[in-house]
Amino acid sequence: MVDEILADGSTASRPNVSTELQGPFVWVALKKVNWNTIDLAREIGKRLRISERRVNYGGIKDRKAVAYQVFSVNTRASEQEVMEAIARIKDVEVIAAWRRKGWIKSEDIVGNRFEIILRECDFYAQDVLANHPTQFPNYFGEQRFGSMRHNSARVGQYVLKGDYKAALDEYFVEEAIVGGREKLMFEKSKRIEPKRFIQMNWRLFKLCVHAFQSQLFNEELEARIMDNEMGVLEGEYSCGRNAYGFADITVEGNEFVVAPLMGSGLKLQVNKYKAEQLNKYELTMADFEMLNIKGGWRTLYAPVVGLDAKDLSDGCVQVSFAIQKGSYATVALDHILQKE
Length: 340
Known about the structure:
Order of helices and strands: EEHEEHEEHEHHHHHEEEHHEEEEH
Strand content: 15-25%
Helix content: 25-40%
Largest sheet: 8 strands, mixed
Number of domains: 3
Shape: globular
Number of strands: 14
């Protein structure tokens, strides 16, 4: 179970439904299962008979989770109409709807609270709580790279280098094509020039480029841990924690090193690790600029906040904790359980 922690201190499961900031956008808190965020946004648009571009979200949640999440919809429909339309979607439960002046953005989400049941355990709750790490390397988790194909980063690498045919060949591995919509996309890709097809489906392929950015970050972090090079390098800085206990790149402090992701929009000073990556993948910073793939900032380590554990029956242990937005529960959990 994952529950978004909102910037006002409330959660998606128990949102603060304020009437002070009324506007043209309807924010909807909901509970979903068996839906990934992008597909659900598309389905919400369909049910409200509006473009999916008029449906937005602050973070992406996995399909294989009980997820409490907030969406925003630019619509003239009333809150009640929006709630009723979304409630008719299978495996979705609407919690609340209220109006706001703008879209929900990533800045409106500060973190996520997780409850995870571990089965067939050869340990107990007290073992989890004893000597657990308070921080973990802030790797991007495997979900970032495609939960089915696991090749999103390679697709993104080809797109970034302008080899659009190779990107489509990598994306449409026939044995991995599933679902009617994907099969239709595959057939359509055969009739359209590769660059044009990727432009038409840029929302999807941009995620692949972001996956490649994430791979670059993971590789640099791994190399720095191996080299014990965890101090502030060229173009980096340090930060402190916010009121929720999360590392916050906007808070002054020296507890967490903040590193830039490779991308446009940043005055990137290329350290030795990034220089090696550019050479390894035959890339330049101009490749990111050309596609307007923005960089961003990420802490090398992230804290585990509010860890708790309890024993259940039949060798199960329930673990709960909160982590900052953009961090991955799978990565945090590996380190809580002291796995490599």
